[in-house]
Design brief:
Largest sheet: 2 strands, antiparallel
Number of helices: 8
Order of helices and strands: HHEHHEHHHH
GO biological process, one term: cytochrome complex assembly
Strand order of the largest sheet: 1-2
InterPro entries: Cyt_c_assembly (IPR002541), YpjD/HemX (IPR052372)
Radius of gyration: 20 Å
Organism: Paenibacillus herberti
GO molecular function, one term: heme binding
Pfam families: Cytochrom_C_asm (PF01578)
Length: 273
């Protein structure tokens, strides 16, 4: 990465240090380490917010957009959400686990070329729709990622309780009922956001009379993920499936959503490459 992105490197190092402090609390209930980690993550949020704003200011007309900015936005949203959750809800380990994903996204983003941009000029008539689509996708991915974390915590706690392998760290986890409820409510938020983002994307394609893009793999797998989440809600609401099955299905849905983001280079819809 260019030396002008020294701020990005500094964010990564401080982010990693903050997660190390949180890991100490994760392993041995070290409250002092947790406070240090929280302070560092707040500092990272401030630096990352400044970096995001500088990227936005770099091209205010939004005529260019890159995969680098997309994943930067995902990481920022995950960090923001984790800090909000820790402020208003006493849920142990959620900050560490959510930010583990956020840090991984930020680190892997080093392999993205910030100068390889998606030209939006050809989509002049639908440019505002595409900007709205990108915003909705960012929010839905972050919300559904946190829902997946809660489902993962549910499966872990359930397996430990079933095998009667109790540990001190398990006492700091929410109950199975709480984990199931948190995950379900986040999916209820994330799925409509995902549906709206896809409807906006389809609208932009129709406005620009580029209907051939509807057969793109990116579009097909996006609707596939939406249908699977719809099936999850059907099983959860109509069939009243137990939390164990719902948690597994939620993780499968999110795995498809992640796969959907990984095929971006093979997609003509976004032209990430």
């Amino acid at each position: 990465m260019d030396t002008t992105y020294w701020l990005y490197d500094m964010i990564l190092y401080i982010y990693a240090l903050g997660l190390l402090f949180y890991f100490s609390d994760f392993v041995d209930a070290n409250r002092r380490a947790k406070r240090m980690g929280a302070g560092l993550l707040v500092f990272v949020w401030m630096l990352q917010t400044g970096f995001v704003l500088s990227r936005i200011w770099g091209h205010m007309d939004m005529s260019l957009f890159s995969r680098f900015e997309y994943w930067l936005g995902v990481s920022w949203l995950l960090l923001t959400a984790s800090l909000v959750i820790s402020r208003f809800f006493r849920i142990e380990f959620i900050v560490f686990l959510v930010n583990l994903i956020g840090f991984s996204v930020l680190a892997l983003n080093l392999f993205s070329n910030p100068n390889s941009e998606i030209p939006l000029e050809p989509w002049k008539l639908a440019q505002e729709l595409l900007i709205l689509h990108i915003s909705l996708v960012l929010c839905s991915f972050a919300v559904l990622a946190i829902a997946a974390v809660f489902s993962g915590m549910y499966l872990f706690l359930h397996s430990r309780l079933k095998s009667r392998k109790w540990s001190r760290s398990m006492a700091r986890l929410p109950s199975l009922d709480q984990l199931d409820r948190f995950s379900y409510r986040l999916v209820l938020i994330g799925v409509p956001l995902l549906a709206l983002s896809l409807s906006v994307a389809v609208s932009s394609v129709i406005v620009e009379d580029r209907l051939n893009y509807l057969l793109d793999w990116k579009v097909i797998t996006s609707f596939g993920a939406l249908i699977m989440y719809g099936f999850y809600l059907f099983k959860r609401v109509v069939q009243h499936k137990p939390g164990m099955e719902a948690a597994r299905w939620n993780l499968i849905c999110f795995a498809l959503l992640v796969l959907n983001t990984l095929i971006n280079p093979a997609s003509n819809f976004h032209r990430w490459s």
